[in-house]
UniProtKB/TrEMBL annotation:
This is Alpha-glucosidase. It comes from Dysgonomonas hofstadii. InterPro entries: GH (IPR017853), GH13_cat_dom (IPR006047), Glyco_hydro_b (IPR013780), O16G_dom_2 (IPR045857). Belongs to the glycosyl hydrolase 13 family. GO terms for biological process: oligosaccharide catabolic process. Keywords: Glycosidase, Hydrolase.
Length: 536
């Protein structure tokens, strides 16, 4: 049985959530694809790392044209990953390790192979016709200028019924019509099915896309290739729906709802956090992409983080991530080869010491990078469409690197995507043996975080604004104060005057510093130094 949370430790606020892309985590049956039994085999690894919950990308039945985000049956497990019995075993064994399971759920659209869409597209008079968004074909013109997230028209003509249907993504992912009460009823019943089974939370994919303008107004034109997505996302009706979803989840104990609200660079914290409501009546957590769009400068992070905190409702709670299955791995996205290890460690320390729930993407804890792929190796339809200008999302979804054996210990046969060529040096077993590895740093920081309430539940106060490429802040409760200082520079940097007194107990530093030696109430930090101390 899973341990019940207490007022002092709320798992989705104070714990560490680990994101697994199931196809790429661990193959247990030698077919080249990761599966549920593979995840079960690695629960001990996750527990040792200090993980409190696992978020699984979609594992439902799907043609896998868009990585499982094209669902053809919400009530079945994709045979590629195993069976429903395998999932129940995963749930039970994860709970025995005190690890929660969060399911990824796509409410915006289904696969075109879903029985609902097959019925909807069968005739104009079918009872499921209005479960999707259809528009009359008037003189062969598209209904409006709405575009998919990939840039093409979001309308496809169905030749059988001679009407257009709407799709926010690929044409094999038709959008559901959330203005139809039967759609909402069917989806709420499906959500209850999984909650009744015992899952611990739901991550709602592209939740801000559910409603579209009912008058189908044209979006404002941005340039020749795109327009501002004003009328096909972020519609006001969503707020009421989120309140109803929250009421549904609150019927169960200790569940979490997480919303993906994608906004283009540089992000929009105010919009993202509006979907938290007052912090108690809509989403529990919402993803803000501003953090991952930042470049590696202390001042930039300060601005993004403080703007984000200011936009969160008083009863809301923040969360942070630095990589995911769509944006890419932070090591390759942020850093040139020079100094990348030092930068990655600073960013990991920032993630694990800020106020908010940290999300770790599988492999980031060992320093996995995006994998260079040839066109013939791509599986992502998006990458195939735009290669070589954009090479898709496969590069950040390659197999987990467990050891230095063939196929990196992920599988005994050729994997579904190539393993990164650096796997001999970058793998779990190798990282465990390196005294200065990213893995050991992250593991130690997670341990320190779990031991100090100020780090996992305390408030935060910034000491500087990122000046001199240093970020200094204090995490505190009424019982404890912890000082965090991060040097984002490859050079030594001197801090501003520290006015907390002279007694510091060093909790962590990635240097050989043993004591705190002040110079006129300032401290000189080494290149890319992480300094965490308890103020006594």
């Amino acid at each position: 049985m899973i341990e019940q949370q207490s007022e002092s430790f709320v798992w989705w606020k104070h714990g560490i959530i680990y994101h697994i892309y199931p196809q790429s985590f661990k193959d247990s049956n030698a077919d080249g694809t990761g599966d549920l039994q593979g995840i079960i085999q690695k629960l001990g690894y996750l527990k040792e790392l200090g993980i409190d919950a696992v978020w699984l990308s979609p594992i439902y039945k799907s043609p896998l044209i868009d990585g499982g985000y094209d669902i053809s049956d919400y009530y079945s497990i994709n045979p590629v990953y195993g069976t429903m019995d395998d999932f129940r075993e995963l749930l039970h064994k994860a709970h025995s390790f005190n690890i929660r399971i969060i399911m990824d759920m796509v409410l915006n659209h289904t696969s075109s192979r879903h029985p609902w869409f097959k019925l909807s597209s069968s005739s104009l008079n079918n009872s499921k016709r209005d479960w999707y968004i259809w528009h009359k074909n008037i003189e062969g013109k598209k209904p409006n200028n709405w575009r998919t997230n990939f840039g093409k028209s979001a309308w496809t003509l169905d030749e059988k019924t001679n009407e257009y249907y709407y799709h926010s993504f690929f044409n094999v992912q038709p959008d559901l019509n959330w203005r139809h009460p039967e759609v909402k009823q069917a989806m709420f019943e499906m959500i209850k099915y999984w909650l009744d089974m015992g899952i611990d939370g739901i991550r709602f994919d592209v939740i801000n896309l559910l409603f579209k303008d009912e008058h189908f107004q044209n979006n404002p034109v941005y340039n020749l290739l795109s327009n501002k997505k004003v009328y096909n996302r972020n519609q006001p009706e969503l707020y009421q729906l989120l309140k109803e979803l929250r009421l549904l989840l609150d019927e169960y104990k200790d569940k979490v709802s997480i919303g993906e609200i994608y906004t283009p660079p540089p992000g929009n914290s105010t919009l993202v956090n509006s979907f938290l409501g007052d912090g108690t009546d809509m989403l529990h957590l919402s993803f803000d992409f501003s953090f991952v769009f930042s470049f590696f400068k202390a001042k930039r992070y300060y601005k993004i983080i403080t703007n984000y905190y200011q936009s969160i409702p008083d009863k809301g709670w923040p969360c942070f991530f630095i990589s995911n299955h769509d944006i890419g791995r932070n090591l390759k996205r942020y850093f040139l080869p020079c100094y990348k290890s030092g930068k990655a460690k600073v960013l990991a320390a920032l993630l694990l010491t800020l106020k908010g729930t940290p999300f770790i993407y599988y492999g980031d804890e060992i320093g996995m990078e995006n994998t260079p792929l040839k066109r013939c190796e791509l599986r992502d339809r998006y990458g195939k469409m735009f290669y070589p200008f954009y090479k898709g999302r496969d590069k950040m979804r390659t197999p987990m690197q467990w050891d230095g054996s063939e196929y990196a210990g992920f599988s005994k046969v050729l994997p579904w995507l190539p393993v990164n060529r650096d796997y001999n040096n970058v793998n779990v077993e190798a990282e465990k043996e390196k005294p200065d590895s990213i893995y050991l740093l992250i593991k130690q920081l997670i341990e320190i975080r779990a031991q100090h309430e100020a780090l996992y539940k305390g408030d935060i106060g910034f000491i500087n604004n990122g000046a001199n490429n240093l970020l200094l802040y204090q995490r505190y409760t009424n019982k404890e104060k912890i000082l965090v200082m991060l040097n984002f520079s490859f050079m030594k940097r001197k801090t501003e005057k520290l006015i907390f007194g002279e007694n510091y107990k060093i909790l962590f530093t990635n240097t050989n510093r043993k004591t705190v030696q002040m110079e006129e109430e300032s401290l000189t930090l080494y290149p890319f130094e992480i300094f965490i101390a308890q103020i006594e």
